Every structure is written in structure tokens, then in C-alpha cells.
UniProtKB/TrEMBL annotation:
Protein name, per record: LANO_0H20120g1_1
Organism: Lachancea nothofagi CBS 11611
GO molecular function: steryl-beta-glucosidase activity
Alphabetized UniProt keyword annotations: Glycosidase, Hydrolase
Family note: Belongs to the glycosyl hydrolase 5 (cellulase A) family.
Domain (Glycoside hydrolase family 5 C-terminal): residue spans on this chain: 641-718
Amino acid sequence: MPPRIHVSDSGEFVDSDGNQIQLRGVNLDPNVKYPITPHCRSHDPMTPSFFEDAHKVSFISHPLKLDDIELHILKLKSLGYNAIRYPFTWESIEHEGPGKYDFEFIDYTIEVLKKIHSLGGIYVYLDPHQDVWSRFTGGSGAPLWTLYCAGFQPRRFEQTQAAIIQNSFIDPRTGKESKPYPKMLWATNYSRLAAQTMFTLFFGGKKFAPKCAINGLNIEDYLQDRFTEAVMTFYRRIRANAPELFEDHCVIGLETMNEPNMGYFTDPNLSEVPKDRKLKRGTMPTAFQAFQLGEGLPALVDTYEISVFGPRKTDTTRIDPKGQSAWLSEDERAEVDAQYNWQRGEEWKAATCIWRLHGVWELKKGNQPVLLKADYFAREPMTGARIDLRYFTNGFFLDYFQKFRGKFREQDTESYIFMQSLTLQEPPRLKNTDLIDDKTIYACHFYDGMSLMFKSWNKLYNVDTLGIMRDKYANPVLSVVLGETMIRKCIRKQLAQMKEEGKKLLGSRVPVFFTEIGMPFDMDNKKAYENGDFSSQIGAMDALGYALEGSNLSYSLWCYCTDNSHEWGDSWNNEDFSIWSKDDLIDHSSSTPTDLKSDSEPDLVSSFSTIPHGRVSDIDTEEEESHWDYNGVRALEAILRPYPVKISGEFENAEFDLTRREYRLTINAKSRENGRLASTLIFLPQMHFPIGQTTIKTTSGQFLYDPNQQVLRWSHDLGLQSISLRKEAETSKKSDDPEGCSVM
């Protein structure tokens, strides 16, 4: 079983002896964003059953099939990974209706986790995942009934542009796109009527939609309570039926919610597209226009395209829903209320936009829409205080976090809670409060904006994504970074800033964990899938690796998708982030660059005579020879990286130079083990540092290498110590360099 994880006073992960450790791995697996029965991926055509059978779906066999687990876990362990972020969705648990839980799915999840546990050495933390609220609003997460709960009729979202869903772009006759689905268009749903309304109600319904009461509760409490109880039911059943997962330190914690969103809050003028909206692509109705479209009224809407320097307006188009409404009619609402046993407050009128109901806008004679409260979501109703990002995070989000955390701690005081606030924004200011304990982890996400939006790795120029998100630059031109070297340094600086910010606002003892970070693989219009040249993907992933290892950051790459294909990527909104693909498997009958094990490889070379302070020999191990399986892993050169598995002391600096095949690590060694030299373990993949072709330079040390686990044990003196490993074209058994030694 993996050792128990602790946290040091400086907010680093450590083992029971105080040695710093790092968690690195993947999100496994985004398949759980959609049900397996019926198999409804985002590129499947939208049929009547998409809505009609939403309460009868099953997610069993997602995210992984039991028979496939060992294969994929072996691949992850071959990469040196020791952690999995395990997504699940609210819909997968409570799709049938409020309080009706799919215990068969939860029990299947337990079997998956038990199988992962039996394979050893993997930590798992659970992620209640969502994107733009639900798959019925273009993403994933919440069940369909939550939209009915808010008074929506999702069947008419397409006509009103309350949400734009990829399924509606698919021709049911051919199964192909009837028109191209633009890159990252799905994310614009965050600024459309359905998702913005749902998040506004979820975080602020009591203050901003007081007329929306259901079964005696405001919709804010109703939605939060149902979500939290669904997650806790899931977690509680796992603990009850598989306590060994927690006792053996396999399952280490639970995340709060993937990428929460602020809805309409902070929008200063509902009649304008907010100036700080960074993603504008395709039609971009203002909030007021979205209200009108939602009630079936036409509107003239601006369209945008993405450029290097931000969104660019391209045209204006007239959208006419022709009277089709995104809201339930009286008859429709009566039907769903009977189905789900809902009793709504008397003030909640059917067939009416929630925001018109609350006086944000009204209809004059002739159905003329008039905006009455342009800053409705930008001011606190009671005090008039301005609602900005900081106010939302330290108010509305914090109220939710406090509720979720309380329910979690009622049943588990030992596991970690992964707190995730708004993406690429400051976390709440919780330093020295009772909402932070020694089992709190700050969960961050990072994606490079240009690479994400253009699906390319531009070595000539890029921009400071974090700086743009924080409105650091008066002019976007000032955010431009030139040259690949400076781009890499810029990304490293952004991640370091996010870590420093977490320590400052949450406390120095809170670890910072990048629970999502990654790069798209369908770069350059999928050229790599035709010619096999993954140099763009390798450059992009290497830049991320360089940035992460510079601050010794733990991370889970987005993602590892067991259903990935070249045609449809991760089977969700044309995203293609998986580091593995079934379409990149190579026939084992032929020799491949990833077939690294060979019986003819020489043993380690003893070089004790070359330097006075060093010695190299094999680790005496009784473990069976490991089989490394990299087949199907993409951009392997950049993903398979050396890193300090365990540091006897504190991390100072690290860098892996992929081009030169050189790894440098500096530590501050502070302890001895039973009177012996302190030992640091380094994952050292033979793909980069092959036997017989690798040299070491170090300030002090003795070395043992386990060729099966690809781990170097470096026993060193106390104080500031450094080690440098480099692959050489040819290496003799004896070196003329008094400070170097051949180790492999």
C-alpha cells in the first residue's frame, strides 16, 4: 500500500519521516461526462431520447471498464505516476430524480477503486466534475431535472441559444457534423442564459431570486443541498463498503466542485457584453438579449472570433426563436412538478423568465423588452456593495464551501478536502480561519490560453494567460511573450505565482495542487495523426513539465481517456487532451521506440574508483522485474520525465532539459536516517537515461539504481546538495572527470 501522506509546515507533501514527496498523475477518465447506456457522447446526434430517457441512463462501466483497469494503471505506473484524479458527475448518481440514487453505479465505482487499490502504489482523490453545469447545457455534471427545477425547458435551448450543444451539429443520417463545430465553442455556454442562470441560482438564489422557492426552500439551498447530499451519499457508501481504501491510504480525499462559475455576478451592465469576458466566439448575446431570446423574442446579436490579442467583433446577426421559449409552459411545469414531487412558491409564475419575474426587465406594450436594473447582479441588494470577483469568492463561493466542507467533515476528519475556487482567479482569503485545517489542499487549474484556443504550439510568440485573466495589461499587446525560451519561462512564472498566491491567501501550510493542467493533442489541424510528427505536442507538454517541476508542483494532467480516438478526441465537444489514444497503439510485433526493455542491456557499471565520494551499484531488490508499457502514449518524450519521488530534506530547484537529456536537482538535505547518509529517490526513466550511456555529477553521494522500478537512490550529505544526470552518446566505464561517474 502507498504510505500515508502528510503536510509539512511549509505546505509540502511529506511522508511519515518528513521526506518531501510529489504526487503526479492524470485525470482518469473523462468518459464519465456522458452515460454509457444509452451511449450518448457529445458527437452523437440529438434524438428525442436525449431528453426523454435522461432519467433512465446508466454510467456503469464509466469511467473505466473493470477488465481494462490493470492495462491502463500499468501504463500510468510505467510513467512514474502515483496519483489519479477520479471524476464522477452529479448526473451519474442522481439522474432518476431528487433523492433517488443510483447505488448500482456507486457499487461499480467501489469495484473500480478496489481494483486500482489491488494494483498498489496509486493515490486517488475524487472529483465531483462539471462543465457549464450539465451535458444538457453543452457540458457535463448536473442531471436534467435540475434545469426543470429552475423552470427551464431544455428542449428549446437550441432555438433560443440558451445553450449551444455539439449534438445538434451532428447529422443523424451520417453521424458526422452537418456543419463544423468551432473550437472551444462549448465554453461560451458559460455566458449563455442556461448556465449563467443555473450558477447564479446555485450560489446566490436567496438574495437574487427570492421568489424561486421549491418545497419550502429557496432554489439556492435546494440545489446546494441536493448536490452536496448526492456527493456525500457517494462518498459515504464508498467508506462504508470499502474502508480498506481509506485505511490503506488509497483514497486520500474529495474535491469540492470542478471549476465553479460566478454566473451573472460581477456583470456591471446587463445590456453590454462585459469587457472582461475573455472568451468570445460565435454569437455573443448580452445578458439582456439572452433574457429576450429565452422568452422567444428576436434580438440583434454581435458575433466574435478569437485573435491573438483577444476577441474581435466580426459581425451582427439577427436571432429569432419565433416565439419558442426556453422556459417551461404552465402545463409542462405542472407535469414535471408532479413527476418530481415539487411544490413551488406562489410567487413563482410559470412560462416567465426568472429575471423578469424579479423585476430585472419587463415587457411593454407590443412585447417591447425594457431593461430596468442593468446592474442587478453587480450590487448587493441589502448594502449596495459592489460585487466583484473578490466579493463573489469571499462571499457566495465561501458560503457554499463552508456548507460542503461541514458535511464532509461530519463523516471524515482524516482525509483531504481539495478546495477549488474560480479558475485562474484568486482563492478566498482564509488564512488563519477555522475553515482551513491541516487536511486542506488548494486545487488549481491552468491551461495556456493561446494553445487552448488555437490548438497549436506557437514557438514564436505567446501571451501571459494569467496576466490577461487578472487584467494586468492595459493593452493586450503588452502581454505578448516572444521566443520559445521566454514562453516556457512565462508559463513557469505563472504557475509559481499561483502557488505563491495560494500560500499568501490560504496559509503557508496549505499545499498547492494542479488538479488539471494539459495541452490539446489535435494541434495543427491534426497533422500529427497523418504524418506521425508530434513535435508540436512534445514542445507544448515539455513546456508544462518545465513549468511544474520548477516549483516542485504536484499535478494531475488532463487527461487520460480510454476511449480517445483521432476522429472524436476525448468524445466530448471535440476536446482531445488525452495523453493516450487507442488510435496510437503500435503493433508489438514490430520494434518501436517505446519497447525499452531488453535482456541484452548491461547491468549498472561500478564507478567507485573514478571519484572519492561516489559509488554506484544495483539496489538489492526481491521484486519481480517490472514491465513498462508505453504503447499508445503520445508525446512520450515530454510526458515521461525524471522527478524526485522522495526528497530527504527540502526541494530547491529542478529542471529537465529534454533536448540535451539532462536532469538537474538541487535540495537542502536536513536529516539523516538511522545515522546513515540521507537518501533521495529520483524516478529516472531509461528512455532518457539509458544503461551504459548516463553520467552523474554531484556534490556528494553514493548511488543505487533499481532498473526495474527506474528509481535512483542518492545517498548524500547534509546541507545544500545538487545532482546532475546526463545522457552521453558514448560512456566508458571509467571517467576522466574526477567529479563525474558513469551510472548506467
